[in-house]
Amino acid sequence: MEESISGFEVRGDWGDVVEHGERITHALREVGVTDGEWDEAETDYAAAFEEWDEWRPKAHERLGEDVEQKTAEQASVAEGEGEKAGEEPSDDLRTAGEKLSESYEQVAAGDDRGALERWQDSIDHVVRAADSAGRRAVRSVEDTVYRRVMTQLAPYYFDNALVSANVQKTTRGDEDGPVFVFEVNVNDDDLKAAVSDRLAEFDETVDRWHVDTQKDVDVAEAAEGVEPPTDSTDGDGTADRSESTTN
């Protein structure tokens, strides 16, 4: 692993990529990210950690399928208020019409203030309906553009308040299989320093890393060309890439 101002980088086979992601995940957990120790105003690092843990490459995954799909999903336009409330655009438009009718009734009753409130409610629902419809249209275009264009031009990436990361396949050797580059940066400088210290401890105390993987899965297929590993798996489906763990 190489450490620089842009993050923690590793070059190697798919197993090296998976191990790198696991080491950083363990380091983040051990320095207290999931316990709220690093949370700041409007920043939920525990939730950001879960997003990272879901996206990071796994031993059983394919770069061009699983990681691509997860990247497209996390890069998509976020849900608007209407979608979060479970409302369809048609629901908001119907509610807007109802609020507008109530506004006229308030005017007729001489309640100008109530009429204004109903009118504003109506406008809010119209805006929310347009927002929801617009976001869905953008997502449909995003998915097509990302899958067909962006993955041809840029590495697979992840970005949230906690971590920025990207992984790409650079070359395919005749004998050794493809070479991957995986770079991960922790966005908070103090937290990054703490993670760096913990990664250094791993290097000193862990002889070989214990990579988690699904049982009975062809890891070579996931790595897109790597020969199947000769190591066996133990009873809980964990690959015998290592003998010791951080526990």
- What is the percent of helical residues? 40-55%
Could you state the order of secondary-structure elements as H and E?
EEHHHHHHEEEHH
Shape: elongated
| Low-pLDDT stretches | 215-247
Q: What's the total count of β strands? A: 5
Mean pLDDT: 74
Please identify the structural class as seen in this structure: alpha+beta
Q: Enumerate how many helices there are, as a single number.
A: 8
Strand fraction equals 5-15%
Using only C-alpha atoms, the radius of gyration works out to 24 Å
Oligomer: single chain
Q: Which sheet architecture does the biggest sheet show?
A: 5 strands, antiparallel
Q: What separation lies between the terminal Cα atoms?
A: 21 Å
* Arrangement of strands in the largest sheet: 1-2-5-4-3
Characterization of the model:
With 247 residues, the protein is an alpha+beta fold. It is 52% helix and 14% strand. It has eight helices and five strands. The chain has a five-stranded antiparallel β-sheet with strand order 1-2-5-4-3. Strand 1 and strand 2 form a beta hairpin. The radius of gyration is 24 Å and the shape is elongated. The chain starts with a strand and ends in a 25-residue tail after the last helix. The C terminus is likely disordered.
